[in-house]
Fold this sequence. Notes:
Blueprint: H1 7-27, H2 33-40, H3 44-50, H4 54-79, H5 82-99, H6 101-107, H7 117-138, H8 148-158, H9 169-181
Helix pairs in contact: 1-2, 1-4, 4-5, 4-6, 4-7, 5-7, 5-9
Amino acid sequence: MKKTPRADAQRNLDSLLEAAKAVFAESGVDAPVREIASRAGVGIATVYRHFPQRAELIAAVYRREIDACAAAAQVLAREHEPFEALTRWLHRFTSLIATKRGLAASLNAQDPTYQAVPAYFREHLEPALQSLLGAAAAAGQVRKDVDTYELLRGIGSLCIPVSEVGPGYTRRMVDLLIDGLRYGARAAP
């Protein structure tokens, strides 16, 4: 049975993961551990106690972001009509993919720490998207034949940086993809 961490230990871990996320976004995944520890307000020993290998820290940050994105689906479904909830979630997912390029590149490394992350990604994000797609399809707002994983992969492909286009390119392309989900939709009776 896994022991629940003490409240202060959980705060340290949360602070550490949030600091690592920020430092990775600013300086890349090879940023010094000292910088992460300093930003989190913890000692270097605390970082290494939780994450003896850098790969473990990178994977933990990525999993935390996946969890937050997946959890957003339920919140959006409660707060918005189905197509709007789906659209907002797809934009959130786009942001996750676009801003985590460095982390994703690290995950392609041969380090065994990363081997479980793609399955984690699918296990958490596919059901979240499927719930939103199903609600929008049931409401007649999107077509019913959309494959969840293909849609996730399609957005991932649209998030690949393209040097000759300006800012906002990815969002415009994802908006076109989202508009395409409506093609062939049948309004609910």
